[in-house]
Amino acid sequence: MLQNYAEAFTTARLGELFIHTMIVGVVSTILSLVITVLTAFAFARLEFKGKDLLFGFLLGTMMIPGELFTITNYGTITTFGWKNTYTVLIVPFLVSVFYIYLLRQNFMQIPNELYLAAQGGWHQGPQVPVEGHDAPVHAHPDFHHHPEDDGGLELLHLAPIGGQ
């Protein structure tokens, strides 16, 4: 029975596919966390012109089904020359509007006085207080969603990296 697993592992190149999955998963999760936390913090704490309008537009994009972007994304990927690269599996899925909304709401729960008091000290520049928001920050990697998880695999199933 173990021989069947060994044969399947070598025939289907499961080791190579596992490495590709780990690279895409780790890189996309780290980059998505950085982008999501910084964007949510900006919407929660920074004051800039058009903030509410931009946030409303961002929330509005959640109502558009992801399937509508499939053809457009494929054209963009082809134009940029990203076919058969890790970039095509990472970049289009870096922004998560749901987690931006979730973290923004959590950042807004911190009293402004507490945030301003935390800025004083030896460091320079603003601080993003992630420590008090363990649940949403830890939930992000668990539920980091890729369209290929629910049926969009046919367009994203490209040749293995290296052109084989």
Describe this structure in words.
With 164 residues, the chain is mainly α. The chain has a single domain (14-156), classed as MetI-like fold, CATH 1.10.3720. The chain has nine helices and no strands. The chain has helices at residues 2-11, 14-45, 51-60, 70-80, 87-90, 97-108, 112-119, 134-143, 153-156. Helix 2 (14-45) packs across helix 6. It is elongated, with a radius of gyration of 20 Å. Mean pLDDT is 78; it is low at 147-164.
Quickly list its features.
164 residues; mainly alpha; MetI-like fold; 62% helix; 0% strand; elongated; disordered C terminus
Instruction: Note the main sheet.
Output: none
| CATH homology-level superfamily | MetI-like
**Count of runs of 4 or more consecutive helical residues:** 9
Strand runs, count: 0
The CATH topology turns out to be: MetI-like fold
Name the assembly state. single chain
Distance between the termini: 30 Å
At a glance:
With 164 residues, this protein is mostly helical. Helices cover 62% and strands 0% of the residues.
Give the SSE layout.
Layout: H1 2-11, H2 14-45, H3 51-60, H4 70-80, H5 87-90, H6 97-108, H7 112-119, H8 134-143, H9 153-156
